[in-house]
Design a protein that fits this description.
101 residues; extended
């Protein structure tokens, strides 16, 4: 019998993120990255493609699903409420990549 992890958290290493990357095209160029790069931030297009691209796709899926749920709820309740914002919080200790993210 397979055990099921009840945790809502998923831990993915860089290789696992990278395996998800091919599903989303990278439209960012080296020049674009240079303009986005912060002071003393050493980030490469490879890192963007391996980690941030699949992460941004996952966040996009969450936003879309949340908007669909809000729309369905609004329709069901007959509400005319406006679309609510999708808020993302990033937390962590010092120097773990919050600003880069």
């Amino acid at each position: 019998m397979q055990s099921i992890d009840p945790s809502p958290w998923v831990a993915l290493d860089r290789a696992s993120w990278a395996r998800l990357a091919p599903t989303t095209p990278l439209t960012l160029t080296e020049d674009d990255l240079q303009q986005l790069r912060g002071i003393n931030e050493d980030i490469s297009l490879d890192e963007v493609a391996d980690v941030y691209l699949p992460l941004s796709r996952l966040l996009s899926l969450y936003v879309g699903a949340t908007q669909d749920l809000h729309r369905a709820t609004r329709t069901f309740l007959g509400s005319t409420a406006e679309k609510v914002p999708f808020v993302i919080g990033i937390a962590g200790s010092v120097a773990v990549g919050k600003s880069t993210t």
